[in-house]
Amino acid sequence: MRGRTAPLAVLLLAALLAPAGAAARDTDGDGLRDAFERRMGLTSPRLADSDGDGIVDSAEDEDDDELGALGEQRFGTDPARADSDGDGILDGREDHDGDGRPNAFQQHARRVPPDVRPSLATAADDISKYGRRCGVHSGKDEVDRCRFGDRDSDTSVVLMGDSKALMYLPPMIDVAEAEGWRLETMIKGRCTPVLGTMPRYQRLFDDGASCRSWRRAAFREMRQDPPDLIVLTFSDDYTLVDRRNRKVTGEQKVRALRQGMAATMAELPATSQVVLLEDAPKQTQNPAGCLRRDPSDMSACVTRRVPAAARQVEMALQEAVEAGGGAYRTLEASICPYKPCPLVQGDVLVYRDQGHLTVTFTRRLTPALRAELAPLLPTPPEDAPKLEAPSADSSPPVPSSPAAQPSPTMQPSTSPSPSEPGEVEA
Question: Count of CB atoms within 10 A of residue 309's CB?
Answer without folding.
Answer: 7
